[in-house]
Amino acid sequence: MALISAWPLVSPILFFLRCFSSSAASTEGSVFQFDIEGSSAVSEQEATVIRGQQQAVATGSWVPFAERCQEGFYRTSSGKCSPCNCNGNANRCLDGSGICVGCQRNTTGQHCEQCPDGFIGDVVRGVPTFCQPCPCPLPALANFAVSCYRKSGSVRCVCKENYAGPNCERCAPGYYGNPLLIGSTCKKCDCSGNSDPNLIFEDCDEVTGQCRNCLRNTTGFKCEQCAPGYYGDARFAKNCTECNCGGRMCDSKTGECLADSPELSTGTDCPTISCDKCIWDLTDDIRLAVLAIDENKATLLSISTGVAAQKRLNDLNLTATHLQAAMSEKKNHAVLWTIQVDDASDEMNDLLREAATLDEQGNEASSKGRLIHKETMETNNGATQLVQQLSNMRDNIQEISSKMKYYAVQQELSPEEIAQKLNVAEEMLKEIKRRKPFTNERQLADQEENAAKELLQQVEEFHERYNDTRSLVSDVLEQLSEQDVKLSDLEEALDQALNYVIQTEDINKENTASLGRHEIKQEKIKEQGDEVNSILLSARTILEGPQRVNSELSEVIKNASGFYAEIDGAKKELQEKLANLSMFDDGLVEKAMHHAHSLRELADELDRKLYGVDTNGLVQRAINASNVYENIAGYIEEANKAALLALNTTNRVKDAAGGIDTQVVYHKGKSEELLKRAMELQRTAEDSNDLTIADTTQHVNGTFARMNALRSHLMRAITKMQSAEQANTRERLEQAKLKTEEALSATMAVTQATTPMDENVRLWSQNLQDFQHNSMEYDSAVHSAGDAVKKLTEVFPQLLDKLRMVEQKAPANNVSSSIRRIRELIAQTRSVASKVQVSMMFGGQSAVEVNPKINVEELKSFTSMSLYIKLEKDNPQLAASPDRFILYLGDKNAKNYIGLAIKNDNLVYIYNLGGQDVEIPLDAKPVSTWPSYFSIIKTERIGRHGKVFLTVPSLSSTAEEKFIKKGEVLGPDSLLNLEPENAVFYVGGVPPDFKLPPSLNLPGFIGCLELATLNDEVISLYNFKHVHNIDTTTSPPCARNKLAFTQSRAVSYFFDGSGYAVARNIERRGRFSQVTRFDIEVRTPTDNGLILLMINGSMFFSLEMQNGFLYLRYDFGFSTGPVLLEDSMKKAQINDAKFHEISIIYHNSKKMILVVDRRHIKSVDNERTAMPFTDIYIGGAPTEILHSSISSQLTGSTGFKGCMKGFQFQKKDFNLLEEPGTLGISYGCPEDSLMSRKAYFNGESFIASSQKVSLFNEFEGGFNFKTLQPSGLLFYYTEGSDVLSISMDRGAVVLNASGTKIQSPDRNYNDGKTHFIITSITPERYELTVDDKKQSKKNPAKDRAGKSPDNDKKLYFGGSPLRTQQANFTGCISNAYFTRLDRDVEVEDFQQYSEKVQASFYGCPVESPPLAILHKKGKNSSKAKGNRHKKVGRDKDKISQPSIGLKKYQEANTQDTHCHLSMNPKATKHAYQFGGTANSRQEFDHIPKDFNERAQLSISLKTQSSHGMIFYVSDQKETNFMALFVAHGRLIFMFNAGHQKIRMKSQEKYNDGLWHNVIFIRGKNIGRLIIDGLRVLEEPFSSNANTWRVTEPLYIGGVAPGKAVKNIQINSVYSFSGCLSNLQLNGRSITSASQTFSVTPCFEGPLEAGTYFSSEGGYVVLDESFSLGLKFEVVFEIRPRSSSGVLLHGHSVNGEYLNMHMRNGQVTVKLNNGIRDFSTSVTLKQSLCDGKWHRIAVIRDANVVQLDVDSEVNHVVGPLNPKAIDHREPVFIGGVPESLLTSSLTTRNSFIGCIRNFMVDEKPVSFSKAALVSGAVSINTCPAA
After folding, report:
1. Computed over its alpha carbons, how large is the radius of gyration of the chain?
2. What confidence tens digit (pLDDT) does each residue in 64-84 have?
3. pTM of the predicted model as reported, rounded to 2 decimal places
4. Region for 888 from its dihedrals, namely left if φ exceeds 0, alpha if ψ lies in -120 to 50, beta otherwise
5. Residues 1521-1538 pLDDT 10s
6. CA 179 to CA 195: how far, in whole Å?
7. What stretches of 1292-1447 adopt beta strand conformation (E)?
8. What is the number of alpha carbons within 13 Å of residue 1687 lying toward its C-beta?
9. Three-class SS of residue 929?
10. What phi, psi does 1597 have (nearest 5°)?
11. Rounded-to-5 percentages of helix, strand, coil across the chain
């Protein structure tokens, strides 16, 4: 009863202990042991079962962490061991993450997959197996790279800061050392701060560190000492001062004068020597030289072989790299299979052994497993019984518990009773613990369990290894199978080779037998040859008679040729002398010669007196400006000498001159007839070998008779010529006398213009007699030059008028060439005047009207001007009236203008654009605080926005004060509309009769002004139209100190493209030697230009820039002709508006080396020949040189535009402005002139930049544009889903802002003129203004909150690489601006844009692209098939095909009766030839309605090309597409199914030149490709049919530019080269293409090179690099198939044209030069249409045109147009659109036939690179018959 009463307390304790026991059993293995009364002993098996069940009771099971994964494995989060992924470079990795630990072989990364910085992997792509130190320049030992990488098979290094070179093999600028020397590093140059401050780095020797060019009178290795003759502290105080010792030396520290000679030691008998300064200088130089030699010696000894070592190491490094790759590849290919077979065999043996071992272990494990299983079953049974007992126990406990609760309720126990019962329960519990019925069984069960687990783990490991082995067996078997296949292939190849050897032996046997037979035949032939030789010997004896006759005939021919040459020479000489007679008289010659000699003497005297005192270079520049007058005088002297010679010669031949032309023509014809007959007789005599002796005798007698007759005929002709009439002689001499008088009057005008020069030279000479470095004398001399310029400029217009009259009246070529020469001199004079950098003094009443060079159209939207200003502050007038006028540029009526003035002590910038004045006062710097020297003013206006800048330089340093003020027009006006005839430019004041606007109506300026630039063009006050009250004697110009400029101005020279510098006798500064070197630095944004030129007869040397890259060509008299050295690899682009150092090195007189920025570009070898030159031209050359015999060797005659500095020959500097002969260059490098404010786009180009802008939030922007194209994308910008674009659509300007479109009402903006666009976006409205015409719409998204962009946005000009609805723009865009978030409004510099694709940043060809002119005013809307309008552009916007009427006419005339060849060559019916151009194609606009559901096409093709597009169709975004193309000769069918691309490729190649039938189908869920009905490829797919939609056009044979590149590889995007026919679309044939580009019928028969124009019509338009201007030569060959057709046509916007055509076999050239039409024609005796090639040449020189057809020549001289402009005209070949042909051109048919060898100015033209090939034109092939 006590026990029962204690159970309520014991049962919870037992339950707790049970849980504790289960948990402990699962964790520590300790078991709570107990027994139940009445139960039997528990066996070991039962204990094991109980323990297992106790483990199952535990909350989750896990593998003990004490059991680690083996090496190379890591434990995952799930507890499994997985292999480490360390790419074989580590053995350990972290548990859980798998990150590798302890990467080896120089690798790093989480999986040892990377190389650390300074190391490079052993593979180009993928994960490296090991990394090695970068060879930069030497691995490990001398590695100075941050990192390195492989490119194009070689290692490229990214060097540390102090190192440079492809392999870090040299020190960077500003550092010295030898990285190739182990242990050496690059250290910073230390020149004690005494090097050139203009350099970014200190200049020292890059190996030794010795400083170059020590400044501030210093010397030494580190410029640490004062130079000889100076003293002071060179290192810190930098105050080296000249010794004041009368030429003797002084102490270098104290300046104390030293004795004349050093003290001699006593006791010597040496005489006392008095040494002057030269000896001490020499001694010091020798000392320094010895030190330098020792240092160099030490350096050379440490360097070993120096540069050779460097090159050798580079070569070895590169060779080692290539050798490593080659050996690795060789090893992989040559030994791979052997290694794999051996390894596989070894591994197989190991695996077999391991499998056997595993099998044995498996058997043992199996037996042990069976035993364990038996024991487990027994344990399980025991456990089952135990469980039953425990269940019974549980029931009993529950019963006891229920009874305990019952009794606890029924009986109330006291605490003492509870304690007593608890004690009893504890005693019972202790008793239970003491009992040990299954403690031993539990221990045994645990031991058996542990043993079973270990055995099970071993079995699992064996099983895992067995599975791994089985997986490797399949790989090994597969490799063995592959090896067996390859061995079988090798065996077959050997068998085939054996068969070939057997066949070869059989053939050799046959050849041996054949050789024997041939030897027998040869013996017979030899015998027959001997018989023939005997016959020929007898024939030779017989033919001696005809040979004598032949020699006599040859003598006759020689005499006839001599007579002919004498007659022709006499004619030419008489014409030249008669022409020279019309120029001048004897008195003028003597006077001009005397005057020229006096001018020369005075100029020499002045030059001698100016030598050495021109410190600022002002007088020198004035002398350079006047050099042109000396040229004019010299030319007049030469002309007068020629005139005198002509007079004397004319007097001698006066009696023979009458009627000479008629007689010469007559006798020339007779002589030609005589010569022709004699030559026929000679040929007859030569052919007489086949005649008999009787025939020969008869021919000889006939020949003697004809010879005598011809001799008498010739004598009569000579007698008649000698007795010619003299009646016409007097008349001709009278005409010559009249023309001579007219020339005399013109020459007198020149003399009057040059007379003041004589006076000025004398005045300069007098002023400089007592010159004492006074700037007033400089100013006086300079102003005298300006006065001479003024007087000469006033006279030249009159002189030009008179010269023009003489030129039109005089027929002689000499007069015309003289006039052209004088015009060139005048142009040079004006150019020099524009560059006179000298100020003018204004006294308040003075004024200058400047002649600006710039076109007023360029000033409309953008106006920028800079000038230098200096006030005369001590002038009392200025104190009384401080407000002053400075300048005015605008209309005479003062409506549109810009101006500068001083008001209220402020500089004020004023401009008016047709409305109210805008005044911008610069109040930050009052005028009264300006310094007493020159300051710089710059004004800028773009659209409505204006700025004024003031820069105040410092005289003591390079520091500058800068001030800026902005303003803008409040109204809508944005253009400065000026008319050329009404525009004036006044500086300093205005004439009394001119009325200024009220805001500028102020007294004239008092002080000095100097103009600098106007819209980037250099301009000068001395290029004036008129001056008012300018007196140089009372108001000399102000001297300007060079420190008022920036440093770059003092060392740079600016070339504007018209001038040049010349260095005469360059060997005076250095000698041509074993190593000859030229150095120069250039900076330019232009594409082309001449940099250096040397000539000597036919020998030359030219360095040019072509398309931004260097082009060197030279010929020193080589037997092989000129040598070309060009940057063909495009390593160094020059035209990026940055300075580039160019070096030309000529080594050992046989190797030319080109170096750019100290980087080797290219070198070439030639014959060993020394340079044969003395003079060098820089930046250009005189016209007579550019047009001399070497002109054909130059790529162009364009002068250099940009900046140059540092020209050196043999490391000796030249001051180019001080060189005699330099013309038209100036100091400085104006930044504005190097900006690229313009960009030209060719229809496939665009530029882009990332800017911090938000165009949908308070935006304004604008730009100029000029085009002849009616449509194109001008500007494009996206911000999220919003798009802002400005484009042209059929001549109108369209703004599209997020779907809101604003279109200009006018549609004539493609007129080739400049137009200005302004776009404004506000929250309320969108506005578009074109040329001050505004259109606007409400902003539909006005409630959208604008926000600043988080990052930069990309905007595009001229087009976009993105897929848009508009084609890219063709034309010019300039002066662009837009509001930004991070800076003020300013003009965009396109050169700084990050993306520049095919855009040109210099020049704007108005007529380019030539095709766009066709759409002027919509006249070219000719319709093609389907009544569809043709698009226009550079292939994207197509030009219309020939009109229907023309095509029908050509089809009706299928055969020209005058032609030998058929008009339509034999061709395959309904087959078309594609290729020749990259975008040859046909376009079809009709697509069946069911095409999107099921597309089935069939086509026949024939090709030998490896790549090309056959068929393509897509939607607008090219998301859905379908294509058939050729790649590597195989046919590929591609289309998309949703986002998946389906691709089917044929196994065989079909580029075999045979016809093949192809069917390709895209069904609802399957694609098929069927070839020749035999080979079928299928590919199923799953797709929603409703989502696949494509749109027109459908392309055949090729695609439009830019199409298909999204889906097809680029090689196959280009046009298919071959024939296509029988195109069917969903079972229906399609034949009528809506557009055709370079497609012709598929010709049969032989083909040859050339371009074929078929009868279906078409033409080729040349690209913009070829144009027909005022002077050109065009040569080509034709083989017509029709006697009429247009050959060539050029057209301009102003109505001028050039047309060459055939009409009934006659070739005609017709021109209109703006005055009237004129033409010339040539008709051949034989037909042009005879099936042969004929050469045609047309040469134009201004108003003279010559036409050559084969040997026939004709020319015409048209009226001279004095206002003619050399336009870049569109050039059409083979045809022209109807809209361009005027009514006066009667031949309108296209040319039918072939054209080849087309050349313009001796440059071949490739039609495959043409701007457009329209219609049925085959570019590369012509049918031969």
Report:
1. 49
2. 444 678 888 998 888 889 999
3. 0.41
4. beta
5. 999 999 999 999 999 888
6. 24
7. 1292-1297, 1300-1303, 1315-1321, 1325-1330, 1333-1338, 1353-1357, 1370-1378, 1395-1397
8. 31
9. helix
10. 85, -10
11. 35, 30, 35
